[in-house]
## 1
Amino acid sequence: MAIERPNRRLTTILAADAVGYSRLVATDEEGTLDRLRVIRKSLIDPVIAAHRGRIVKTTGDGLLAEFASVVDAVRSAVDVQRAMVESNAGLAPDRRIEFRIGINLGDVVVEDDGDLMGDGVNVAARLEQIAEPGGICLSSAAYHQVRGKMDIAAQDRGQQQLKNIAEPVQVYSLSPMRAAATAPHTAIAPRLSIVVLPFVNLDGNSEQDYFVDGITESLTTDLSRIPGAFVIARNTAFTFKSKPVDVRVIGRELGVRYVMEGSVQGGGDRVRVNAQLIDTETGAHLWAERFDKPRADIFDMQDEITTRLARTVGIQLVAAEGRRAERERPNNMDAVDLAMRGWAILNQPLSLRRDRAACDLFDAALRLDPRNVEALVGLAFYHGNELRTFASTNREEQLRIAHTAITQALTLAPGNALAHFVHANVLHVSGATERSLRELEFAIALDRNLAWAHADAGFMKVLLGRAEEAEADLMNAIRLSPRDPGLDRWLALLGIADLFLGRLDSALDRLRRSVEINPNVAMPHFFLAAASALSGRATEAREARNAGLRLDPNFTVARFRNERRSENPTFLAQRERIYEGLSLAGVPEG
């Protein structure tokens, strides 16, 4: 009988642990946990990934990571410790978070779940325990791999008897990196970091407090769904309630780049909500919005207000981060910078010519970090849109790129609602309409505020011969985000549904509004041409046809006919009306 041997390999182990974790938590539990989450998400995880490391497991105050190269592991450790110096600068000593790090090259046992066991791991953990705060300890096995390859000054600490390790280990240490107590504050707040301060109840009516506080809590929850966002927990945010605040001080104290604040005022049968997004570095107002709503069902009103605010603020945050990267690091952008700049473009009204610049940014981001989820989703989204709008001149290649990118994104982030929405888009252009609708429903289950998914669910119903059901989904998308950059597309989809159902007057109205909002997309012009021709409006049909052909001179009725994307008999019969209208409008037959 064969003996099953454990799976072993030689690898580099990095063990890190926060110094004085219990003391920090006892002093300020929520603040410490919030800051540790920021440090992990915006500093440690990206550094380890950038140096091709893999996080094996985490604890409340530490982590274990694996590297194929000792040089990569040491570079990662040095980068983390240097970044922590910046993060701690200006903080009182009792509020600083410092790490000890140990690195070892050794033989390990690989468990089925990817965990690592054995002496190779134990030595790294014991090295971490004897490192000074802000310092790094290496075993001799690790040190000899980096000596002469890195510009580091290591101190030989001689043979050390480490706890529960049978043989003494030769230890080398790198000097601890510390922040000066009097240093000015230069902490680098994470990207997309924000705190929603408690909205102010201007009426002073205590009975309205629960509604005002509910807006703050719901906004905090909804903003947390933005990929890559760091949102300060509501318990910490509410410590600022009813206190005069300086947003720049709050930014430094909480380590956030942005503050959202607002007020609620009631009057008779109406409620007014004001909201502002502020840059904590400069104190500048980046965006402001006002809602005037009838005082109907207060919970429905709260839900509608917070949903709209969350969507708009998400777009504004990404745009602000894109501008910040261009301003501060124009020649040294990392993958996250590039991906955000790409999404800042995609979050504008659709323009395939402009969106190609977004595609270039996503490609550049993936060259730096092939595992950047936002760049993968953006790349798939761009290519899916080219296919969806019948603008592709290389269908199979673009479909391959989109499918590969979104599959990888979902592997890395299976709970990302936007990734599932884009996957649905790719399924749609692949002709898998039923699967696309199911994927959209799953995206909505993950994020009920994802207006794009509601809109596309309506369109999938058109393709499935259920055009009469589409309006409810599309109008829900508009309710969720009435000023959305995608509004022109949603109006066009409503117009298409009307065309399928023979509602020509409604189709004309919605398609006209679509091209007025965004005249830079060809397909709505062609649909408007079809609706105008079918309504006997020859001049308008000709103008819309010409506008479409200026944007897409290769468009033909035959090309459109060949891209059916559904074999539903009702859909195919209804689509004949579009072919007829395009032909009447004088669109080239092919």
Note: Residues 8-174 form a domain with the Alpha-Beta Plaits fold (CATH 3.30.70.1230).
## 2
Amino acid sequence: MATEHMNIVFVGHVDHGKSTLVGRLLAEAGALPEGKLEKLQRYCERNAKPFEYAFLLDALSDEQSQGITIDIARCFFKTDKRKYLILDAPGHIEFLKNLVTGAANAEAAFLVIDAHEGIQENSRRHAYMLSLLNVKQVIILINKIDLIDYSEAQFNQVKHEFADYLSQIGIEPIAYIPVSGREGDNITELSNRSSWYQGNTVLAALDNFKKQDTDEKLPFRMHLQDVYKFTNGGDNRRIFAGQVSSGTLSIGDKIVVYPSGKKSTIKTIESFNSLPQKAVTAGYSTGFTLHEQIYAKRGDVIVIEKETPPKTASTIKVSLFWLGIKPLSLNKTYYLKLGTSKTKVVVEKILNVLDTSSLAMSETAREIRTNQAAECILSLFMPITYDDLQTNPTMGRFVIVDEYDIAGGGIIQGHIDDDKTKLQAQLYQRNTHWVTGNISLEEREQALKQKSQLILITGDGPSEQRKMVAAQLERQLFSQNKFAYYIGIGNVKHALESANEQTNIADDVSFKRFSEVLNILLDTGLIIIATVANMTPVNLAELEMITSHLNVVTFWLGRPRQEIKDASFIEIDASATADILVKRIFSHIEHSITV
């Protein structure tokens, strides 16, 4: 029988003794490498420093010199019952985002409070974050009881005060344990100095945590990291790679790719530098090949067809905690990341903002400030695939990136159906009924010696200019032995719409039909040049949903417009001649169309 594994996080206010407690636990339980404790003690003697058990974990030089935990300290620990990954999360307010990383991966938590200093603002913040991240099993360690002379009355005072706060945020602690990391009280053995306490030691409480439904028993989920192809020695495998979040995948399983709905069957399960496997389970990074070749991209979620399906949405209701220096504001564009999926996002509505210390709530706030929690409605540029926390916790947790920094995180409570969600549902149905041939897009690209690409030429300038530039670009690509094809939205409109429709058809229907035609053409391996007037980021997001194609580049010819200041659009001064415009466009695409 395989040994059980469990992730445990230690959290608490700075200087309340988390690292000392963890270090003492490892030392007294005999979990340290042989000689490590003695080596550290000799180091402290040589450098005239008082020995601290916290030094066993605080590996960074800044941490040892300042006496604070900056990064997540990770250590492995084994008892007779199970193996543990212990996560010592930083307590300092500037490093709260590191705490989120640790708590998001934990099944249970110890929250540490200094018995002498009492409950601090970060004690409440950390407790709220455990609640927000749905960590159900929590034990409160009231530390440094040696500083209060092992007083039961003072212990109970801290306990009752914190219990009132915890009850308001939905946390019911399993136990409150009086401890001293420095003196070793109640860590692995009950202490005579606190004889009034007859509950579990920290070590016993650790083993009494209940293992949640193992990730292996949950529905299979794997965020796709990338698709790899190796050509040396005639190796034609296309390996879909990623880390398994939950469940078990076996050879022969029928899988579905979300959100597209494309289906195939597992042919082989690959592993690096070892024999091929018949199955792979949660926590392992792996790769697999398919019988029926399908197109999938980074961020897609792989699911077993017969198991509980995930949800797909582009407007979601969330609970989040904001850690950014600048406030989280309405209508500003951020990035939301869940697994390997990443999409632009704006805050559509702030439902309420909570002060996590006082629990005071505002329903009129227009922004979310540093270290505040909130419930919001988020609008995503592209739909994401997620699960309810009850179904699969890791598939319901996300982070928000502001510019280049992780500035917040939270959980998805549910979603609101909108036009993008309805469109994604239609595309899912389309793809589940799509009949494919036996030639993959990659094989076509290799044969044509080019990368399939969609080159969109848009703008608010004259349509004749866009058409001239597109036609000349097609001719230049053709002269360089590239297989390119130019098509304008007008061609599709006149080809697919009857005479009766032409005066009544809605623009959004015309654009959807145009996008579906582009989807078919891109699958042939061609380089497609398309023209359409006045595209917006919303139009582009819809087109990318319909085509599921990564290799899309959009050029804006015309007057600069603030609302499309977006990395997806490349602005080109339309006052230049057509020859110069073609040269500028070609310089942008030259490398991306090369195999």
Note: Confidence is low (pLDDT under 50) at residues 58-72, 91-97, 501-505.
## 3
Amino acid sequence: MPLPHLHDSAPRRLAAACARMALATLIALPAATRASPAASAPPRARVVTTADGAVRGVVRHGALEFRGMPYAAAPVGRLRFAAPQPATPWQGVFDATRFGLPCAQAARYQLTAASDAEDCLRINVSLPADLPPGERLPVLVWVHGGAFVGGGSELYRLDRLATRGRLVVVSFNYRLGVFGWMPHPALPRADNGGWALEDQRAALRWVQRNIAAFGGDPQQVTLAGESAGAFAVCAHLLSPERVAGLFERAILSSAACLQPLPTLDEALRGPQAMWRRVGDALGCPRDPQGSLRCLRAQPAAALVAAQQRVGHSLLDFAPVVGNATLPRSGAEALASGRVMRVPLLAGGTRNELRLYVAYDLLQKPPPPGFDAASLRRYWLPRYYGADRDGRYAAIGAEYAPHGAIDGAAFGSLLSDYNPTIGLNNCLYLASDDALARWLPELYAFEYADADAPVLGVGIGPGLDPGIALGAVHASDLSALFPHFSNTAANDGPDLAPASQRLSDAMLAAWAAFAHGSSPAAPGLPAWPRYRSAADVMLLQPGRSRVYDASVQHRCAFWQRLYPDRARPKPI
């Protein structure tokens, strides 16, 4: 069962309010003012003893950082396509000054880096360098995104959350694509296709065993993630029997817990099953045992290349429902209340899918424009399937009454609602409605900074799709992680002054939430608990306010077209 929370009693509510005021004041102060006089010049390197051995970290940007520590054994040989196993303890002092290699993946979008590493189950910890001995801080565990096939913990600087938020911040790598998500009929059902989620749970158990040695409180853990990382947090919330005691609060950015997913049986059957497609690309036998032996014998780079050849959808490699790892769908869990009952902060970006429209437009040759004929022939079928019950005409009348729109407007249309990709605001609201029935607290947000960095950050350097981008998918990461760039260089641009002020407010709110309070912060109005779509905090430079997100995103219209999939309704 979840541990008690600060909202459980009046004294705890008072303590939380006092802590929130102190934290807000602390975050607002410059770093030089906050530094402890006794620790004004911390040593550059420190050694901490974990359950597996001693580790050496270094101070960067005012944070003491430990990087690349093994939290599980390398998943190679017979451990490929198997649950993570304990790491082997070591003698001496482990050099934890560099990130571990990102897990095997292909380069994507002319931006991210490729990897063929499987010895990648590594974890990182950042904490304020001036943390006095014996003090315990709340812990925030970050799960990276990357469409279930990419990304890595080396992309995120944790120091600002650690130092300004007064948190111990953890990140880690987990298996991706074919290695983390591809079920196979020759394997046991229990964790089949769920190894990436099991990696994450192994990392959370590592936190429980070790985080006190780094100054963290294992009974104050917030699990947070963005995009695929946020949906992984959903999967943990929907599997309370598997994660009890591993975290006490959660943050979702750009994921809907009601996102439909294939079942394990669906993923295993038929000629289009991914294990068959990958195996065929590699010339593997088609009988299950022969296929498994062949797939385990292949070099990691060959598996990545095969994955690239046969994968065509954003959900080709994603969680499956019906194993012990993820025993139920979001719809089933939220209808029955079988969900981890912890406080939740949840939201997304206003213009999520303008990013994917931009990727489409950057293809060579580029797709057609957005006139009425192209909408019907190319764009609407791509995201809305067959034209049933006059849906195309209804969408056109609602969004393109004059017959044509531009790419930005089409991206906003998709970001309001689409049945193909769970990155859309009406599905977020429907998920919030379903979750709020069961959770002690839920706070909802929408990130809407139109000046957030995108070119060179979410879109490769030198590329420009020629449309207004706005607050696209993942643009909120720049507000939480300094100089975020989707590359290990962390060389994203400085934020504009108004965007930086919003970033400061968001970081303060996220930290207050992780400290056990509501997400209150200087620069933001009072943030109500979620009761309906009218309780969403709009995060916008100079104009942050509580507003009705269902009106902005025309959810009533989408509810009429998709009554079972986009139904935000008041509690």
Note: The two ends are 25 Å apart (CA to CA).
## 4
Amino acid sequence: MKLRELLQQHQTVTADGAMGTYFSQLTGQSAEGCEKANLTAPDVIRRIHREYRQAGAVLLRTNTFSANTYSLNVSREELKEILTRGYEIARECARGQAVVCADVSAIYDNELTAEEISEEYRFIADTFIACGAKTFLFETLSEIEPVLPAMKYILSVMPDAEIVASFTVLPDGCTRSGVSVHALLESIVQYQNLLTVVGFNCGCGASQLLPYAVPFFSYIQKNTDLYTMLLPNSGYPSIEDRRTVFHSSPLYFAEQTARFLPYGISVLGGCCGTVPESISLLNGMISGNTAAAVKKIPDFPKKTGQAAFASCLTEDRFIIAAELDPPNHADLSKILSAARTLKEAGVNVITVSDSPLGHAKMDSVVCSARIMREVGIEVLPHLCCRDKNINALRSLLLGAHSEGIRAVLAVTGDHIAETDRGVIKPVFNMDSTRFMELISRMNEDVFADSPIAVGGAYDPAKRKTEYSLKRLDRKLSNGAKFVLTQPVFSEEAIDSLKQARAKGVKVLAGIMPLVSWRNANFMQNEVPGMQIPDELVQRFRSDMSREEAAETGIRAAVEIAEKVRPYADGFYFITPFNRAEIISQIIKRL
């Protein structure tokens, strides 16, 4: 039996429930690596399939979710045997009365090349095809792109194959890699010709999925020919004694999942924490469903506004931004005073750095919010990816938006010093380009009424121009609307800035005044990536007074700014030691 034929005959069909967690419940063994039980405990796997069939499931998933050589640490020969026996057991239990889906997971391994992963998928697909598989389920996906080569390969070998793509969405409406439900739609629509069914599984329970899945399914039903599927967990799990435990009752699961029936979902079943009783109760509700019409489903929200900073940039105004460094203590009086001085000097926006050089400073968003409230000037906090996973970055953006912040600078963040490693643990869940993509996706749904303008950093150093321009292309494609450059000191840097601006992005040129002989030498020798010409450093003397050194730095900064002005959309002043009066003097002279 083919899946499409089954779906054409019924409004909603019942799928099976969990394999791994039910296997663990029956055997007392860990669910990890339960695919090996196809060989070591086939009777247990056979029992699970049969119990789900008796519960009313007409779609069975093979016990092969993590069956690849990397996840199971097995040879190709062992893997082939696991896959083959997994498919044979499921087919035996289906007895021609249920559709068997060859179950495949995405392979996430940063140490593998794309070709190695593609080769693994080809081996898995060839093994299933040799078994007679016609329906393939790629489940628990964070995004579709990693499995596209596998899908395309299957269809090239078997054009009539049916492919199901199922994504895992967490309670916040995003996948584990930070892809929003709204963003998933774009990729699914783009590759809909590869698919038969699309849906969600795992991650959370039906009640938590409802706000995100309902408009998702509405869009799919209105704009594609794809069928839809929902296989939620029995609820949201807890961790007890290092074990994942689900407390929701089978009846609760069935009632919550049945709430999707009026929306015309093609396949309903279960994932982690569900048992045959869960599916039996759900199947009874599906069989008793007499809804003749599908409920009206709300569409995703549309963008209605534009961030203030983005609007400012589109008005062809020359923007003046000035950076302040947050303190390493809790007193903001000095930085607030500096912000007032800069505002009076004509600065349009205050940017606040985020723990530069990996040294702990006050949170940039908290500091920015105080400046905006108490000084009355727009702010642009830097948000670095170091020290924050995807959840933390999303939380930070939500907090920033609630404070009225509508523009951020997304940066990867400086690495932790080698001497601190092992004591201070760096976290790099994503880099700045992926962070920009995350912000852009949140702008499509969470911030649709008032999006956040996202900018990036650009390094115009001559030795990095080609690399920097390639990075800039990625940033632009991921939603960057403007860039702040590293300090410009040379003609070569100005030329690099011109090349960046030619790509159509708004460029705020970095101007950093040096303020002493010691400062100039430190910046030239000890700050990574800083290229300061010897001629500029030699303008300073070690015996200069504070006032004479400051004047030397101001004159040099004005000279550089005048050279840069024709090739920039604004200035980005890096305020030395938060000495706002120096930036004020530079602005007056310009």
Note: The chain has a mean pLDDT of 89.
